[in-house]
Amino acid sequence: MAVMVAVVLGAAASVLVGVAPTRAAVPDLGPSFQFGVAQSGFQSEGYNRDSNWLRYSNQGKVPQRVGRAVDFFHQYAGDIARAKSLGVGIYRTSVEWSRVEPAPGHDDPAGWAFYDRVIRGVVDAGMRPMITLNHWVHPGWEVDRGGWNRPGMSADYVAFAKRVVNRYAWAKPMWITFNEPTEYVRREVQYGGVPPENMGAMVDGIIAAHRATYRYIHAVQPGAQVSSNMAFIPVPGVQSWLEDLFPQRMLDSLDFIGVDHYYSFSVTDASVANAATGQMWKASQAPESMYYLLRHLAQRFPGKQIRVIENGLATDPHGRRPDGYRRGDHLRDTIYWVQRARQDGVPIVSYNYWSLTDNYEWGDFDARFGLYTVDAQRDPTLTRYATDGVAAFRAVTAGHGVPRGYRPTRMPVPCSLVAVPDICTHPAVVR
Fold first, then answer.
1. CATH, range 229-431
2. Among 64-68, 225-229, 285-289, 387-391, whose mean pLDDT is lowest?
3. Residue 123 and which of 20, 91, 273, 369 are 20 to 30 A apart at CA?
4. How far, in Å, CA of 262 to CA of 233, rounded?
5. What number of CA atoms fall less than 13 Å from residue 50's CA on the CB side?
6. What confidence tier does 70 reach under pLDDT thresholds 50, 70, 90?
7. What is the C-alpha separation between 305 and 256, in angstroms, rounded?
8. 128: enclosing H helix or E strand
9. Residue ranges covered by each domain of the chain
């Protein structure tokens, strides 16, 4: 390991020393570029129906119960209005399978009516829905049937997806069939939904379900944009393997490459390990990793447009971070690097911020990602309070990015490991 580090650092030094940055204006993203916000149903809605994740929550397999989350179920209208006020054009949320089909073959009219109001509200607010069909959650009755251990699970998912598509194709949404399928598989194994020996069957079942759903969406909604977003893991070798596991196998049924990116990793900073322990606010940030990621995806998946489905900054329950990095600065810095990537020819067409409000981060409420903060544990009113990220995002959407001449608050770190070895031979340059 020491030898590898020395080689990598030496390569970085040979490139970085004595190189004068090119001082050229970084153009804005233009009016065609789309900004959005993102959330998921289970993490935000509360009043959840029986599901795999409600069971994990209630059975003590995770630190805290989801409870009523941040009660998007009753406060959706206000949250949609908040998103509209940001000037975004995309609103991502999910339709929870267990809410609309609480028992096999039984559609709940009240559950459908809730999502009718949400989707109508998003459209009436001038935004385009991005509907996620599975955000790691499936009904409890599917758990009782065996979940993804059962071959019929794939067909059940497709039947559910078809009903959602039939009901909401009128809104011309973008579609995410499965959110971060690698993480979905990992967490099902972690919490006992699928034994390790059945991981391959779950992977195959998800891919089959995605393909069938993709075909159906395009039959019902010609010209639709459909994908399954991947979680980007900034570890050399691991990410390529994960890309081979899902997106490469799905490539002919992905209209764009969707990616979620939060953390960086370098030979001088391994604090990303804190994300694995739930203390995500202790994972330091290198916003130029977004540039490396986008450049990598453009090279790995040529000819595909790229959309950032999730990106954000975690703070602790008090809105703080040990490194003092603020949400507004992180957002502006990240968008700067999106603009740099676009300037260099990367076909990036949209960016979603995760998340609109704080929510249940898959086990607890400690990590806060929201543009609007909500104290779900201590505030019975669940009032939304604007963070500094709100004003920053409004300025970004109004200006189609950060203004010419913007300088990131944090300069690139030497030899990020997001895309070795390219990042050492072609490091990010602030212009």
1. 3.20.20.80
2. 285-289
3. 369
4. 9
5. 9
6. very high
7. 5
8. strand 128-132
9. 40-228, 229-431
179 contact partners, CB below 8 Å, separation of at least 6? 40, 94, 132, 134, 135, 136, 228, 229
Environment class of residue 155 by beta-carbon count within 10 Å: exposed (0-12), middle (13-18) or buried (19+)? middle
Q: What is the mean pLDDT of the chain?
A: 91
* Cα dist from 367 to 191, 377, 384, whole Å: 20, 12, 16
Q: Given this model, what pLDDT does residue 420 score?
A: 67
Distance from the Cα of residue 88 to its chain's centroid? 16
> How far, in Å, CA of 211 to CA of 266, rounded?
36
Task: Give the C-alpha separation, 376 to 385, whole Å.
Answer: 12
Q: Is the pLDDT reported for residue 345 higher than 80?
A: yes
Ramachandran sector of residue 358 (left: φ over 0; alpha: ψ -120 to 50; beta: rest): beta
Fold of the 40-228 domain? TIM Barrel (3.20.20)
Beta bridge partners of 176: 132, 227
Position 431: which residue type? R
- Taking the C-alpha atoms of residue 392 and residue 200, their distance in angstroms, rounded to an integer, is 43
Q: CA 137, CA 184: separation in Å to the nearest integer? A: 9
Write the pLDDT tens digit of every residue in 272-327. Answer: 777 777 788 988 888 999 999 999 999 999 999 999 999 999 999 999 999 999 99
Confidence category of residue 37, pLDDT binned at 50, 70, 90:
very high
pLDDT at 411: 87
Measure the CA angle with vertex 153, ends 72 and 221; round to 5°: 65
Residue recorded with tokens 């990020």: 416
